[in-house]
Design goal:
homohexamer; mainly alpha; AhpD-like; elongated; peroxidase (chains A, B, C, D, E, F); CMD-like (chains A, B, C, D, E, F); peroxiredoxin activity (chains A, B, C, D, E, F)
């Protein structure tokens, strides 16, 4: 149903195969999801996207679970079906409980609500908020 | 610059004043920011929004700082100038460091990037991700 | 501050002047707002946009005020500063009261809230809703 | 296909059941659509969303049909599949004719068109439009 | 699955049939895609949309393939499933190669990434960029 | 006015200075625009963003001007003020004429219009468009 076919392991070129292998090693799982199989049509884009994602989502000043939660919030606001599914699955795998998910949905809903109302009224930014 | 004037303390009706007072008490600060002063044109909307926001952003299964971080991510994805400013200020007041902010920007950027690429290709959702 | 300068009456070519005149006649006002003065850099785009807008916003099965209200809702959801200002002014000129504006903001807020929550959960469409 | 399962009447806890009952009574119909069955995973979010929606969509300064029309416009601009379906069905049930729907689509299209063009050119807001 | 049924050639009124015929003649193909069959419920909207689209997408200062590429970029950013599919098919028919598509995806991803990061930080526009 | 201050050449750390130098060399200009000065608060994010942007926007299967045109289209659809200004300036520097800009605005407007109308009606994707 995509605009491209999904590249199987068999069809993968050596560069693509190297990225698939790194995904498997990094995640400790044999599963390579469809996003990477679609991107594999352009090996350079596949590699650049995976290398950056691996770096960005790694533990750092923010916890990996918090990063997945941020990803869900962005994906829901943008209406990306695939991304909502894949990052909700990742967040659950990293420990997101039902209670956390319920609160996340509440914040996502509230933020989208007040964003739209603020935009409608074009509220000027308080001087106190400026850097 | 807004589509409505900002209601001052002097202009506030008793219902509006009651909400402003609750904002001050809840936050332990005398500052009432412009969003509430704009919403004050409709006291019922002001009260409903504040009551819900207070509830949603309170400590729970997710930390209040994580909730502010989610709010920034949504506001950046929607392009809400006021909300980016106000929630970045709130997040900093709740302990967001420069390192956390830098990683947050990285995740926001990455999520918006992959959302758009996934949408362009209309990647089908993997069966493994479905509830 | 725009990416183009704003075309004054003096700078307007005959085709542009003809559109400005029709805007003035249709609206019964001498005021030609900045959107048209920016579009005037491309006379064909100016004319196509104005001709279509005049037609779309005219009285029909939907009242012109309802059409302005829809325009505000779209503009708020897209975060278009100029459009929120211009269509709120138009809606007020066509009779939008403070009470109507307050309710409109409530619906805009609610719709953006539930849109995001539905997208987050990817709720399947009920069979009952399909045409 | 959602990120959560849909809660049936049999699975509903007493708090969830109370909301489902209020939905049925308020709408005068036995049908509880999937949005509420998905939200039911978080009874507090379910109740807060329904209570607010019931209030916001009730007759007031704006007609309930106008409110549904606004909801469609927001949902189309945000690309929310579920919401476009559910609110189009609601609007039709409240009297939206084919002629009204056609004009609504025209206004939604025009608003999204001019929003994007205004944003591209970053047209400055006319002084005449400011409150 | 749409909110309206799709109008077949047999069901088409004479005005609708005239537009369908013009689509066929202009494109040199018998195929009339679902977008036009859905719009056909409102013959005036169908005709206005087709007439404008035919004009906008015709060869001019920008090549028709560049116009299709722009259409894909907008559709991906807005998350429009149908539009991503239909305009990717059109772009390929007009000569978009796999290498071009891969680079297009890279630019779309980069632009959505930096848009969100710029919005998050609310970077002020450099004087050098203003017209 | 940003959420961060803008890093001047004097305040730049050696890593930041190295990126600023590469921006100057690559572009053959002494001008380093505000986006990079804001990002400079996080040297790793600055470097990752610049390195990727330089690569993505370089000549390839798509002409650099076409890439700037795509960037404008995405930025207009997302409502990013800064990005519309900076990429319109870049596109002009790379040869975008007034006629090309006018046609670009027409395509951006049309795409956003039909995206919203398609989303409103949830038109099913034609089998002919699927890969």
């Amino acid at each position: 149903m995509a605009t491209v076919t999904l590249i199987t392991d068999e069809e993968a070129s050596p560069e693509v195969r190297a990225v698939f292998d790194d995904i498997r090693t990094t995640r400790g799982s044999d599963f390579v999801n469809n996003f990477w199989r679609a991107l594999a049509h352009d090996p350079a884009l596949l590699k650049a996207t995976w290398d950056r994602l691996k770096d960005v989502m790694a533990p750092g000043a923010l916890d990996p679970l918090v990063k997945e939660i941020v990803y869900i919030a962005v994906s829901a606001s943008n209406g990306c079906e695939y991304c909502c599914h894949s990052h909700t699955a990742s967040a659950r795998a990293k420990g997101m409980t039902d209670a956390m998910y319920g609160e996340l949905l509440s914040v996502i809903g509230m933020a989208n609500q007040t964003n739209a109302v603020v935009n409608a009224m074009q509220v000027p930014v308080d001087e106190e908020f400026k850097a």
